[in-house]
Task: inverse folding
């Protein structure tokens, strides 16, 4: 078992179930995705490009994305917090998960298909 899978399975309920559900949705939409353990949390990559990451924090699970500016729909569902380049969908229960929103956002991320870390570093150099 890889460390990303261990991260998910060691969480307490309801967070473990939320993480497993989100993982299943991501893998269904992006069947060739690769789940890696980066910065102590699960990241999903497609063709070497990070698409999203999962993080259990406080009393919720974050499904976090870059390229928020490309989103035309569901922008009211995202939380920024103190982060400049990442937005997330937050879940406190499985009932909060709306597959339609996640599928839309994942497909938009695949359309952009640009490594967000390169864009962030490029913006900092300016």
Result:
């Amino acid at each position: 078992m890889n460390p990303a899978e261990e991260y998910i399975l060691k969480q307490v309920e309801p967070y473990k179930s939320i993480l497993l559900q989100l993982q299943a949705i991501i893998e269904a939409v992006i069947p060739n995705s690769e789940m890696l353990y980066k910065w102590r949390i699960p990241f999903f990559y497609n063709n070497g490009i990070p698409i999203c990451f999962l993080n259990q924090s406080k009393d919720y699970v974050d499904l976090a994305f870059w390229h928020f500016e490309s989103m035309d729909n569901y922008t009211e569902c995202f939380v920024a917090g103190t982060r400049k380049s990442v937005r997330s969908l937050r879940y406190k229960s499985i009932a909060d998960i709306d597959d339609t929103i996640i599928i839309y956002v994942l497909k938009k991320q695949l359309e952009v298909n640009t490594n967000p870390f390169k864009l962030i570093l490029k913006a900092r150099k300016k």
In short: The chain has a mean pLDDT of 89. The first helix runs from residue 3 to 9. Strands lie at 34-38, 41-46, 49-57, 60-65, 87-91. The longest strand covers residues 49-57.
